[in-house]
Inverse folding.
């Protein structure tokens, strides 16, 4: 098999890249190790920055997102039984975010790719990237029980943190920056409308909690039909609890989860948490990770293959989008002008934005989680930071700007 761009991985990074290249008239092949049902069921964060929304729309992948996505103009910070709303448009000159699950973004992009795009092979596992330093890099892969080779002009590793692409970069040519956290998130999906119409980030002595939401499952509708957004009441609850590292999700009964959420979201007013049947339960580890550079020869890394942020602040998907937009632009520029200048700047361009998101995600994590060995001094500092954030417009604007997103490139 031969193609211009070999894409490893059909997460949001690989799928969007395939779409952007298709729109630009550049052929690509996507290899995904899992099956379609698995990719479409994977639950991940669901906050799209304005820039991400614009890119998906321009790529023709915004129909369902515009119909089902919910625009959010703020978040609530909750601590010491107090509630504080951060008003994004007022603090950023009009910016907001869209609540639309990553799973849904993937479903939309898969449907488009299968209808209009080039090959997208499920259950095709990349085994290795070879010849990254040559003009003809190759991906060795296994599909339907056979080993095969995909010959490319460029390979983009969009295969997530556990993928194989990064391994093709020799240790001497790379540097890794990493931080792990002694806690994780127990995430649940509950069949009950969200208890608040915006996201709630809670700092509590017992640990962090987050209230988010997911759209109800809705199919694609014919574009000519009237587009109306769905009310928040039709959404279901997505909730998270900080738990010790290595926690088994099944060790928590549904009742224990609701009781603990209730405690951590406690307020001085009459706010109440709505309970309902829990339909999904899982634990996510927390990590910060950056692999520099994001390019080696003709192998480019994008998304989680190159960097991980802890989920506080929901930057993972938005970073992946920034990377593939940068790559697609750079390759288009090279084909139109013959200049490799943007491709050569790929790693540097992406890393500037990556490190801003790393900083923000780390700050949000440290601000809101309680480390198992936190001292009383650190507890007081955390509260003082929250006081500062909720009483200074400058501090609040800093959070709002980062949350709603930094420009690509
Ligand atoms: N061969 C083919 N596919 C692979 C291989 C392999 N050897 N290894 C991994 N994959 C696939 C995975 O099955 C997955 O579908 O690569 C895909 C990587 O997708 P993601 O992990 O979703 O990563 P990315 O597309 O970079 O998206 C980043 O995902 O992890 C979240 O929060 C993160 O929102 C962020 C987003
Ligand atoms: C989610 O809805 O899954 C979510 C939202 C915001 C975050 C993290 C996760 O900061």
């Amino acid at each position: 098999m031969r193609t211009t761009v070999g894409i490893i991985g059909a997460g949001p990074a690989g799928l969007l890249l395939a779409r952007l290249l298709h729109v630009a008239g550049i052929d690509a092949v996507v290899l995904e190790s899992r099956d379609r049902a698995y990719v479409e069921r994977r639950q991940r964060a669901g906050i799209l920055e304005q820039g991400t929304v614009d890119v998906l729309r321009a790529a023709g992948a915004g129909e369902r997102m515009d119909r089902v996505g919910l625009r959010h103009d703020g978040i609530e910070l909750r601590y010491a039984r107090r509630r504080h709303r951060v008003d994004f448009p007022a603090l950023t000159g009009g910016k907001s975010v869209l609540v639309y699950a990553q799973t849904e973004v993937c479903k939309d992009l898969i449907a488009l790719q299968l209808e209009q795009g080039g090959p997208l092979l499920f259950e095709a596992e990349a085994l290795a990237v070879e010849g990254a330093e040559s003009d003809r890099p190759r991906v060795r892969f296994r599909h339907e029980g056979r080993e095969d080779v995909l010959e490319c002009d460029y390979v983009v590793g969009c295969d997530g943190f556990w993928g194989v692409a990064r391994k093709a970069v020799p240790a001497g040519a790379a540097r890794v920056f990493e931080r792990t956290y002694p806690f994780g998130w127990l995430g649940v999906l509950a069949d009950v409308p969200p208890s608040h119409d915006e996201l709630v980030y809670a700092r509590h002595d017992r640990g962090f909690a987050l209230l988010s939401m997911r759209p109800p499952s809705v199919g694609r509708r014919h574009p000519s039909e009237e587009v109306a957004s769905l009310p928040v009441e039709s959404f279901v609850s997505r909730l998270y609890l900080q738990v010790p590292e290595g926690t088994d999700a099944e060790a928590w009964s549904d009742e224990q989860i609701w009781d603990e959420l209730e405690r951590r979201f406690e307020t001085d007013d009459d706010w109440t948490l709505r309970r309902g049947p829990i339909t999904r339960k899982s634990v996510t580890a927390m990590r910060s990770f950056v692999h520099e550079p994001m390019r080696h020869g003709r192998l480019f890394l994008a998304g989680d293959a190159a960097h991980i942020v802890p989920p506080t602040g929901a930057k993972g998907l938005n970073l992946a989008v920034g990377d593939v937009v940068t790559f697609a632009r750079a390759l288009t520029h090279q084909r139109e002008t013959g200049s490799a200048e943007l491709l050569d700047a790929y790693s540097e361009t992406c890393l500037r934005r990556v490190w801003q998101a790393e900083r923000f995600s780390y700050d949000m994590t440290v601000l809101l989680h309680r480390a198992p060995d936190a001292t009383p001094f650190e507890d007081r500092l955390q509260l003082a930071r929250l006081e500062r954030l909720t009483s200074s417009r400058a501090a609040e604007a800093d959070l709002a700007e980062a949350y709603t997103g930094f420009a690509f490139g």
Summary: The CA atoms of residues 162 and 352 lie 23 Å apart. The chain is about 35% helix and 25% strand. The two ends are 32 Å apart (CA to CA).
